[in-house]
Amino acid sequence: MSEHRPGLDPAVAEVRLAVRRALTGTDADAVVVGLSGGADSLALAAAVAFEAPKAGMRALTVTVDHGLQPGSAETAAAAAATAEALGLYARVVRVQVGAEGGPEAAARTARYAALREGARDAAAAAILVGHTLDDQAETVLLGLSRGSGAASLQGMAASTDLDGIPLLRPLLGVRRATTRAACVAQGLVPWDDPHNAETRFARVRVRETVLPVLESELGPGIAEALARTAEQLREDSEAFDEMIAETIEDIVEHVEAGISVSVGALAANPAALRNRVIRHVVASEFHVSLARDQTLEVARLVTDWSGQGPIDLPGCRAARAGGKLTFTARN
């Protein structure tokens, strides 16, 4: 289905089509758009303003004022005014940003909490945010640099759950240059976040230096290739998750103060599946994530056991006894 019509800018058409596809798969009477005022979220809001009424949906923008920069209240108010000019309901929420996890993570936590509350107040059944293909590529590179495995290389999903509300990313297949071009074509003036130029942030260094160097040295199409890699890894992960769910039903049982797994069954599985089962059991039972070296240390209780004692892990302890690998809470 083509969105291109005479007089319709191709960038506007691409963004609208991406939004239309996302809304078509949503059973919602109302949606919330996270609007910072930047080019990505502004192009998204404009497309939602066009597509939502056609789908019989109400649309509201929520602009989060983190209060981290001079003039943040004015910037948020300007974004809301633009949304209203587009025909959208608009709301500004001032939040307090904590310190846990660093400034970026703390701001993201506060922002998503505000979006979630905005959606609940508006009885909206979905939240839309403006992450683009470029954001996806940056996320994959950052995950690769941390060596944190396939889970981080999957990047961002097109749809995730935010405490019971679908969080949608319609623009994951759209380049950042396209969202900016869409704003220009519609006479919208985006806000350029000064934080996006601060090289103290790893993501900014990836955006401004690493990706351009890769494009220069290896040729164009690097961002698209990274996004494809994320999509393929996500497909693989979904298949693994199904295998793990089937496997766990047969080899896991609850014990006093914890959970146990059959050593024989773990040993019979490939290392990739065995390690995923170990991580899944610990995460689901004790709500902590194991690093790779911790996972491998636990796996050695299965594959290279010579009577070694319990292993202390974050939030739990792993020990082998009587053909079982048992995980119990630490006091």
List keywords for this structure.
5-stranded antiparallel β-sheet; Uridine Diphospho-n-acetylenolpyruvylglucosamine Reductase, domain 3; 16% strand; 12 helices; ATP-binding; 331 residues; alpha/beta; elongated; 6-stranded mixed β-sheet; Rossmann fold; tRNA_Ile_lys_synt_subst-bd
Topology:
Layout: H1 10-24, E1 30-34, H2 39-54, E2 58-65, H3 72-85, E3 89-94, H4 103-121, E4 126-128, H5 133-146, H6 150-153, E5 159-162, E6 165-168, H7 176-185, H8 202-218, H9 222-251, E7 252-255, E8 258-262, H10 263-268, H11 271-286, H12 292-303, E9 311-313, E10 316-321, E11 324-329
Helix pairs in contact: 1-2, 1-7, 2-7, 5-8, 5-9, 9-11, 11-12
Structure overview:
With 331 residues, this protein is of the alpha/beta class. It folds into 2 domains: 10-225, Rossmann fold, CATH 3.40.50; 256-329, Uridine Diphospho-n-acetylenolpyruvylglucosamine Reductase, domain 3 (2-Layer Sandwich). The protein is 52% helix and 16% strand. The protein is built from 12 helices and 11 strands. The strands form 2 sheets. It has a 6-stranded mixed beta sheet with strand order 3-2-1-4-6-5, with helices on both faces. Strands 7-8-11-10-9 form a 5-stranded antiparallel beta sheet. A hairpin with a 2-residue loop joins strand 10 (316-321) and strand 11.
Would you summarize the structure shown here?
With 331 residues, the chain is α/β, with parallel strands linked by helices. It has helices at 10-24, 39-54, 72-85, 103-121, 133-146, 150-153, 176-185, 202-218, 222-251, 263-268, 271-286, 292-303; strands spanning 30-34, 58-65, 89-94, 126-128, 159-162, 165-168, 252-255, 258-262, 311-313, 316-321, 324-329.
